[in-house]
Specification:
- There is one protein chain.
- By secondary structure, the protein is mainly α.
- It has a domain of 27 residues.
- The protein has 3 helices and no strands.
- Helix 1 packs antiparallel against helix 2.
- The protein is elongated and about 50 Å long.
Length: 68
């Protein structure tokens, strides 16, 4: 890691990464719930996959701002 940051890093607020914070907890819940209900675990994993298909607004805003 150099002292200079790349253009991609600039302007992205790091504090509001709720998907990144919630994912490990939900994966853990999915693993634990698989012991008792494999269907529930599969639904949790499906929900996580769908959650990550939603584009991150921080990146979308950065891309829109860079086009202007």
């Amino acid at each position: 890691m150099g002292a200079e940051s790349s253009d991609w890093d600039q302007g992205i607020p790091y504090g509001q990464n709720w998907k990144g914070k919630a994912s490990p907890a939900l994966y853990f819940i999915g693993i634990v719930s698989a012991q008792w209900s494999p269907t529930a675990a599969k639904l949790i994993y499906l929900g996580l996959a769908l959650l990550w298909l939603i584009p991150d607004r921080r990146i979308e805003n950065l891309l829109v701002d860079s086009k202007e």
